[in-house]
């Protein structure tokens, strides 16, 4: 299995964990000081302010809150770039969002 295939498999497993709310299974994937930047989102189904969240547990708590409030799940992915910096286009069909996710390894 080549490097790109390994990363793609790792990312697919992480997305599955996100969708099922099994965040603790991401502990080996996300560093303790992981951070996410979320743009302002405002459509008929989701509304949240722009945020920069630092710390794996804080990220998990944010994901838990948005999943409880809005039922967000990734329904489709397109791998735009796989490598040290990977970019995945994520579709959240139930809430009418398409966002690019960028992960730095």
Overall residue-averaged pLDDT value: 92
Instruction: Please report which band the strand proportion falls in: under 5%, 5-15%, 15-25%, 25-35%, 35-45% or over 45%.
Output: 25-35%
Distance between the termini: 18 Å
Q: What is the overall silhouette?
A: globular
Specify the biggest β-sheet.
Answer: 3 strands, antiparallel
Residue windows where pLDDT falls under 50 for at least 5 positions: none
Number of strands: 7
Largest beta sheet: what is the strand line-up? 5-6-7
Class from helix and strand fractions: alpha+beta
Write the layout of secondary structure elements.
Layout: H1 3-20, E1 35-38, E2 41-42, E3 47-48, E4 51-54, H2 56-70, E5 76-81, E6 85-92, E7 97-104
Antiparallel strand pairs: 1-4, 2-3, 5-6, 6-7
In short:
This protein is of the alpha+beta class and about 100 residues long. It has helices spanning about 5-20, 55-70; strands spanning about 35-40, 40, 45-50, 50-55, 75-80, 85-90, 95-105.
Overview of the molecule:
The protein is α+β, with helices and mostly antiparallel strands and 105 residues long. It has helices spanning 3-20, 56-70, and strands spanning 35-38, 41-42, 47-48, 51-54, 76-81, 85-92, 97-104. The strands form three sheets. A three-stranded antiparallel β-sheet has the order 5-6-7, with no helix packed on it. It has a two-stranded antiparallel ribbon with strand order 1-4. It is globular, with a radius of gyration of 14 Å. The two termini are 18 Å apart.
For this entry, give a set of tags.
3-stranded antiparallel β-sheet; 105 residues; 2 helices; alpha+beta; two-stranded antiparallel ribbon; 31% helix
């Amino acid at each position: 299995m080549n490097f790109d295939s390994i990363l793609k498999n790792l990312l697919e497993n992480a997305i599955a964990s996100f969708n099922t709310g099994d965040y603790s299974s991401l502990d080996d994937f996300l560093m303790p000081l992981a951070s996410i930047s979320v743009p302002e989102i405002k459509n008929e189904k989701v509304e949240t302010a722009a945020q920069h969240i630092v710390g794996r547990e804080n990220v998990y708590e944010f994901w838990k809150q948005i999943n409880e409030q809005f039922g967000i799940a990734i329904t489709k992915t397109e791998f735009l770039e796989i490598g040290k910096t990977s970019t995945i286009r994520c579709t959240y069909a139930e809430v009418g969002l398409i966002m690019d996710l960028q992960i730095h390894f």
